[in-house]
Amino acid sequence: MNAKAVKEVLKAHVGRAYAPYSGFPVVALVEAEGEVFLGVNVENASFPLSQCAERNAVAAMVLAGKRRLERVHVYSPKGPIPPCGGCRQVLMEFGGPEVEVVLHGPEEEVRTTLGALLPLAFRL
């Protein structure tokens, strides 16, 4: 997908996030083996039970039988935000340090890599 199309998909789905406690909706799109998979954050009154958009997108990818990330996109109307530490580790499980991560906000974007976000990732 081209960058403009990705951003439109992200913006179109951010309203599906369930973020009544933080007011911080997030949508993630992962590109894997020529396909795209979406996830949104799903909060819970017991915060540790909440699910991040990035991990939900990875779960959709795994459910479809894919195992290798090519690129990760994260969008929030609050601005470009990086994945949390747990999501960084999950993303690294299915990608590598060279996988591009694009952090989208309403007006701006930041491009980085998984390696830059998680330089000392736990790897087996």
TrEMBL record:
It is an enzyme of class 3 (hydrolase). Its cofactor is Zn(2+). It catalyses: cytidine + H2O + H(+) = uridine + NH4(+); 2'-deoxycytidine + H2O + H(+) = 2'-deoxyuridine + NH4(+). The active site is at residue 54. Its EC number is 3.5.4.5. The keyword Zinc applies. Coiled coil: none annotated. The keyword Zinc applies. Keywords: Hydrolase, Metal-binding, Zinc. NCBIfam families: cyt_deam_tetra, PRK05578.1. This is Cytidine deaminase. It comes from Thermus thermophilus (strain ATCC 27634 / DSM 579 / HB8).
